[in-house]
Amino acid sequence: MIAETRILSKFLSILALLLTFLGFQGVASAEVSEEVKTTEYNFTEAMNHHISDNYNWDFGMLGHLELPRILYTSTTGLKFYPSTTAAIADGWIEAHHLDEEAVHGALLAPSAKVLIEDIEAGQHNSTKKSEEEMDIIKTHKPLDLSITRNVLYLFFAFFILVFVFSAVAKGYSKNKGKAPKGIQSFFEPIVVYIRDEVAIPNLGHKNYARYMPLLLTLFFFIWFLDMMGLTPFSANVTGNIAVTLSLSLFSLVAILASSNKHFWAHTLNPPGVPLAVKFILVPVELLGIVIKPIALTIRLFANISAGHIMIIGLFSLIFIFGESGKQAMLGHSIGIFSTLFVLCISLLELFVAILQAFVFTLLTAVFIGQAIEEPEHHH
Amino acid sequence: MLSTVLLQAASENSHLWGAGLGAGIGAGLAALGAGLGIGRIAGSATEAISRQPEAEGKIRGAMILAAALIEGVALFGVVVAIILATKK
Lengths: 379, 88
Known about the structure:
The structure holds two protein chains of two kinds.
Chain A: H1 2-23, H2 25-30, H3 43-51, E1 56-58, E2 64-66, E3 69-73, E4 77-81, H4 84-89, E5 93-94, H5 95-98, E6 107-108, H6 112-122, H7 131-139, E7 143-144, H8 149-174, H9 183-229, H10 241-257, H11 261-268, H12 275-322, H13 328-371
Antiparallel strand pairs in A: 1-2, 3-4, 3-7, 5-6
Chain B: H1 2-9, H2 17-51, H3 56-85
C-alpha cells in the first residue's frame, strides 16, 4: 500500500512538472501566430461583472435568463415587464449606449429617444460627455424597482428561512417534552448557542427574549445569503453594500428604539468628565452611535466581497497566463494550481460566511446591551 | 507574457499610475497590519489557554470577536484600495 502511494505521488509530481514546463512552449509560438483572433482579458471588467448586480441570471454555457423589470417615471407611471428585452421593445432605451459607466441593462425613459436622436444628428464630438447628454441621463432615468439577481436571491433566502424554520417550529410542537428529531436537532444547538453566548451575556436575563427574534433572523439570514453567494451562477448579495447597509439600519433602529433615558443621559452628559472635554466627547459619542452600524456595514461587505475577489482573481490567472488563447498551454498548466487554490480559499470562505454572520449578530447584541443598560445602584 | 507587460506600460490609464501604486501599497500595508494584530491576539489566546485549559471556551469566544473586529478595520483599508485601483 505504501509503495503504491509513493509511486503514484512520484508520477503525479512528474506530470505536474511536465505540464508546467510544456506551457512555456507557448511563449515561443506567440510571435509566430498573429492571425489568432482573441479579445484582451480585462481583469477589472471581469471582476466588476461578477461582484456587481445584474438584470439577468446567467448560467454560462447552459443559458441565460432575463429577469423582470419594474420601472417608474412620473409620466409613464409604474410599468411591469417580464424581461429587459420586452422593456426595450416597448420604447425604453439602453443607457449603456449613451453612458459607458452605466451598467448593462440600465434603462432611460422612452421620451429620451427624440432628444438623443437630436444630439446624435447635431454633433460628433470627442469622447468627453457633453452637457446635454448628462442632462438627459439625469432627467430621464426611471426609478428602477426591478427584480435584479440580488433581489431574486433575497427572496430565495426569505423562502428558505421561512420553510426551514417553520419545519423546526413544527418539530418542537410535535416532539413536546421529547428529544429533538430531524432538522430541529441541527438548528437547536445553534439557537441555544446564540441565546446563551450572545443574547444573555449582553442583554441580561430579563430582557433577552425580546431581542432573540432579531438576533436569530440577522444571524441566519446573513449566514444563508453568504453561503448562497458561494454557489455557482449566484449573486453576491451580502457583498452588496446596499444590502448590508439595510441590515445595519435594522440594527440601528433596534438600538435607538430600545435605548433608555440612562443611555442618553450618559451620552449627552458623561459623568466624571471635565467641562472642556465634554465639548469634544459629546459630538464624538453622538457620531459613534451612527458610525458603529456603518462599521457593521463595511465589515460584512468588505469581508464577503474580498473573498469573492480573491476567488475571481485566482481564476483569472488562468486567462491572464493563457492570454486569452495565445498561450493556451500555459493557461492549461496554471489551471491545476489555480483550481487547488480556489478550493482552499472557498473552504476558508465557508468559515468566513458563518463568522461574519456571528460577528454581525454579536455586535448588534453588544450595542443593544449598551443602550438598555440600567444604572448601577452605587451612584 | 512580455507583450502584455509592454501593453500595460502604454495603456490609456497611464495618468492614474499613482492611484494604482497607492492602492497596491495600501492594500499590502492593511494586510500587514491585520496580520500583526491578529497574530498577537492568537498568540495571547493560545498562551492563556495553555495556562488555564478550563477557560478555553471563553478565551476562544473573545479571540474570535477581537479578530473579526480587527479584520474589519483592515478591510476598510482594502475597500479604499479597491476604489483607487478601479478608478477610471
